[in-house]
Amino acid sequence: MTSILIWGDEHDSCLLTKRVLEKQNHTAAVFTALHEAVQWAEKHSPDLAILDSREEITAVRALKTLKSLNPHMNIFMTTTDSPASDHVQTIRMLGAEVFFSRPIAIDELEKRVVTICSQTKRR
């Protein structure tokens, strides 16, 4: 079972993600306020954070803040940017896995979380 932080600017989308992940026996907490997500992450040290914000600056700030709390935390971000964009290059350089479509299909989300979780267990 993996502990997952879900942060984004669309509450309903985050709740759907949580429901999908809980069906896979993960625990998940949903936040739309970054400061609340950070406070929760400080107390619970999640294995994975899923970040989904349309505001690039806020998403990068979230990524940097969470990585500063735990450099080994896996972070998965969604974006609609091109793989060659500066934004995508920045978030990859900061250590996030990137998915290039919104909304993410449920089966794709499940596959990616399974992959990330299996990598975490190998550490």
Helix/strand layout:
Blueprint: E1 3-8, H1 11-23, E2 27-31, H2 34-44, E3 48-52, H3 56-69, E4 74-78, H4 86-93, E5 96-99, H5 106-122
Parallel strand pairs: 1-2, 1-3, 3-4, 4-5
Helix pairs in contact: 2-3
Which structural traits does this protein have?
123 residues; alpha/beta; Rossmann fold
Task: Please provide a brief summary of the model.
By secondary structure, this protein is of the alpha/beta class. The protein has five helices and five strands.
The helix/strand class is alpha/beta
CATH class call? Alpha Beta
Number of domains: 1
Give the DSSP E fraction (strand runs of 2 or more residues).
Answer: 15-25%
Number of helices: 5
Q: What is the first-to-last residue Cα distance? A: 15 Å
Low-confidence stretches: none
CATH topology: Rossmann fold
Radius of gyration: 13 Å
Largest sheet, order of strands side by side?
2-1-3-4-5
Q: Tell me which CATH architecture applies here.
A: 3-Layer(aba) Sandwich
Largest sheet, in brief, is: 5 strands, parallel
CATH superfamily: Response regulator
Averaged pLDDT:
88
Instruction: Estimate the global geometry from the Cα principal axes.
Output: globular
SSE series: EHEHEHEHEH
> What's the total number of strands?
5
